[in-house]
Structures are given as structure tokens and as C-alpha cells.
Amino acid sequence: MTAFSFVLRLHGLVLLAFLLFYACKAGLLLTGRLDTLRAVRARTRIVDSGLGLLILVSGGVLLAWYPGTVPGWLWLKLALVLVLLPLAIAAMRRQFKPGVVLTFLGFLYVYGLSETGSPTLQRASARATGYAVPPGVAEAVATPEAVAPVDTTVAARKLSATDSATLAAAAVPAADAQAPAPLLAGQALFSQRCAACHGPDGKLGRNGAHDLTKSNLNTAGRVYMVTNGLGKMPGFKDQLTEEQIRQVAEYSLTLR
User: Fold this and answer.
1) Backbone angle region of 56, left / alpha / beta, with phi > 0 → left and psi within -120 to 50 → alpha
2) Quick one: DSSP state of residue 145?
3) d(CA 110, CA 238)
4) Alpha carbon 117 to chain centroid distance?
5) Rounded distance, CA 20 to CA 127, Å?
6) CA distance from start to end of the chain
7) What dihedral do alpha carbons 74, 80, 83, 89 form, nearest 10°?
8) What's the pLDDT tens digit per position in 2-42?
9) Which candidate, 90, 95, 121, 240, has a CA 20 to 30 Å from the CA of 68?
């Protein structure tokens, strides 16, 4: 397990533990069991502080180690946590029920944001195709992103002969393509950039990642996905060269 993968898993577990713990205290407050609530709070102050600190620290580490350009939803998540934590502590200390309910709903939204990678709480597959595909499940039909949206017609795009040949080669289905280029380089890049969510065998499905062993994307589609990203998956066009992106895409085709 990579360091990023470990921190990602830790962050999710800590956030879930904090949410469940806060829900228990909110339940005691809303049901009027104030003596029990005071006793619980007195005995768990260190736990409260520790969970809050772990959420902030692990979130900061994820931002620093994110394998690609940090997406907007992750910045939104961190900003909400920074706002909600002190508000939740103050509301619980004052036993202000509306404040406790609102902050609890806020934390629920943060957790949903973490799971979907979307401010609208829609998974990437649902936004792209109009229907939900659980992470790690094979795609039944070709998805819209399965072919890179480029026009390979020279007349339409007025491309040079060299550029046209390059685009035409990129659109050849994986089954008809020549043997993959340096697989060792692609494997190394995949381990560094992709294994945290896809797993070393492509089947992990963490963070909404598709099972690469069952994906129907061809080389062109995978190059496009690695370049531009989708949903929680970042694009790597600013971190990797075109050759490196193609090496990663071609290596991923061997994970079957």
C-alpha cells in the first residue's frame, strides 16, 4: 500500500468515526438526555480533539500528496471542515440544538462529497453517462468517453499529414494496435500515479475508480482519460508528457 493510499483510507475512516460519534452526541441532546451527554463529553474530550485534529492533518497531507492537479471539490471539502469543526464544538458546548442539527447535516454533506467527488453528490459515472455504475463494475456498453473526442479528418481540422497520422493511430482499437511500448515505464508510472485508487492489479475500485480489468476503453479512450481526468480522477496533462501518458494507458490494457 502506498503512503497516499494509506492516508486516503485513514482520512475516510477518521471522518466516518467523527460523524458517527457526533451523531451519538446529537441524539442524546435531541432526546433530552443532558446528564448522559455531559458525562459522555467529559470523558471523551481527548477523543473529540484527536478526531478533529486527524481530519485536518490527513486532509492537509492528501492535498500535498494528491497525484495530479487538486480538484475543486477537495478544496471545498477542506474549507467546509475548517468551518464546521469550530461551529460543531461551539453548538454542542452550548447545547444549541438547531446548530447541532445544521452542523451534523454539514458533516453528512462533507462525507458525501468525499465519497462522490462532486458538489452535487453525483458519482462520476452518473454524471458522464446519465446512469450510475458502481465502482469496480464492468461497463456493459461503450461510455461517451470511450473514444477521444478528436476529429481525425485532415480536411475538417486542416491538420498536417503527420498530425493526421498521429491522431489516426491513436484511434485504432486496442486489439488492432501494435505491441505496447515500454511496459516497465508504464508500470512504474501506474504504480506512482494510479495504484492508490485503481490498485496494482486495476481492480481496487477505491474512490469511485473503475475496474480496469473490465473496462471497455481502448487506447485512445484511456489516453484521453489520463490526460483530462473525469470526476474524482485528476487529469495528468500538466504532470506527465504525452509519451508517459500513452505508456500508462498501454500498460493499463495489460491488466486483464
Assistant:
1) alpha
2) G
3) 28
4) 6
5) 29
6) 21
7) -110
8) 677 777 788 888 888 888 888 999 999 999 898 998 898 88
9) 121
